[in-house]
Every structure is written in structure tokens, then in C-alpha cells.
Amino acid sequence: MSINNYNPGQRYRDRATQRFTNGISMIIVIMLSSSVGFWMGKQYGAEKSISLGEQVATLSKERATLQANVTELRAEAQTANTRYEQIKAEYNSIMPEGPMQDLTRLVREQ
């Protein structure tokens, strides 16, 4: 037969110690969880910052290229408008005016 080492005077202190230990361990688990969460958030923020910096650099280069294209196209449009005005002036100088112009238009329609 075994002899129990049960001490009724000590049980309340043992329970209090056990509750205290459990409480401390819960606090440690919560602190570790929040620390890991904060660390992961910091890593995500740093990674996001790097990717956004790269995206800004890429978009800036693309914007510069597009602005160069717009400038080139505007120059070409201006050249085309100037050429159109020259051809229009030349056409108007060659085409007859007045009744002869009406006669030429009627001939074209037929």
C-alpha cells in the first residue's frame, strides 16, 4: 500500500502557485504571439515599400518614354498640319474661281 503525501495545509498554496504559473505562461504566449505578429507586419511593410519603390521607378521610366512619344507625335501632327495648309493653298491657287469652279465641280460629279 502506498502512502499519500497529501498535505491539506499546502494545497491552497500549491493551487495559487499553479494559477500564477499558468497566468504567467499565458502572458508569455500572448507576448510571443504579438511579437511575432509585429515582426511579420514589419517585414511585410518593408517588402511592400521595396516593391512600391521599384514600381515607382518603372512607372517613371515608362512616363518619360510616353512623354517623349507624345512630343514626337505632336511634332509630326504639326508637320502634317503645315503640309496640309500648303497643299490646300496650292490647290486653291490651281483651282479656278467663280463660274469655272462650278463647272469643274459639275464635271466631277458626273
From TrEMBL:
Record key words, sorted: Coiled coil, Membrane, Transmembrane, Transmembrane helix
Residues annotated as transmembrane: 20-41
Keyword Membrane listed: yes
Name of the protein: Uncharacterized protein
Species for this entry: Micavibrio aeruginosavorus
Coiled-coil annotated spans: 56-90
